[in-house]
Amino acid sequence: MAEKMIVPFGDPILRKKAKRVTEFNAKLLKLLDDMSDTLYAEEGRAGLAAPQIGILKRVIVMDCGDGLIELINPEIIQMSGEQIGPEACLSFPEHTGIVKRAQHVRITTMNRAGETITLEGEDYLARCIQHEIDHLDGILYIDHIKGNELYHDRTKKKVPLLDVLHLSRQNI
């Protein structure tokens, strides 16, 4: 098990669609373990999608406060309600944006044994699930920001969203 480097904002892999996992083997287990090591390497991390460590597989690890959740080939099957709140990303550190998401989600996913399960999330967990599944489809939280509500965490100044979007889509 090992901590992996997080792919930085602007890397074209973050805009690519990840492939479904078809083999449940030792390689997948190692990926899940490495991803959880990376997630827990620093405090305050809530989720990590495989493309963020350079692997185009539909795999996510999350801990939104209630322990580790592993998602393999997750699909949102139901969304309801609305919430608006701050989001950040490990690939785009020191920036926070105000994003609208569904308040409640239901997903189907697989566990590390290859069994299909259903998971529901509300509030912060629903936000995390949507954010991480977006990563699997090459979508970043900045794509959801309404207006120009993207801020630099240290300076608290607004960041020009159009410039950021342009940078995130180069070399696609």
Question: Within the largest sheet, what's the order of strands?
Answer: 1-2-3-6-7
Average pLDDT for all residues: 93
Structural class: alpha+beta
Report the top-level CATH class.
Answer: Alpha Beta
- Radius of gyration using CA atoms only: 15 Å
Q: What amount of the residues lies in strands?
A: 25-35%
Principal-axis shape: globular
User: Helical percent range?
Assistant: 10-25%
End-to-end separation: 31 Å
Number of domains: 1
How would you describe what is shown here?
It is a single chain. The protein is of the alpha+beta class and 172 residues long. It has a single domain, classed as Peptide Deformylase (Alpha-Beta Complex). It is built from 3 helices and 8 strands. The strands form 2 sheets. Strands 1-2-3-6-7 form a 5-stranded antiparallel β-sheet. A 3-stranded antiparallel β-sheet has the order 4-5-8. It is globular, with a radius of gyration of 15 Å.
Relevant terms:
single chain; 172 residues; 3-stranded antiparallel β-sheet; 22% helix
Briefly summarize what is shown.
With 172 residues, this protein is an alpha+beta fold. It is built from 3 helices and 8 strands, in the order H-E-E-E-E-E-E-E-H-E-H. The chain has one domain (12-167): Peptide Deformylase, CATH 3.90.45.10.
Q: What order do the helices and strands come in, and which of them pair?
A:
Layout lengths: L25 H14 L7 E3 L9 E4 L6 E12 L2 E7 L2 E10 L2 E7 L5 E7 H14 L8 E8 L8 H9 L3
Antiparallel strand pairs: 1-2, 2-3, 3-6, 4-5, 5-8, 6-7
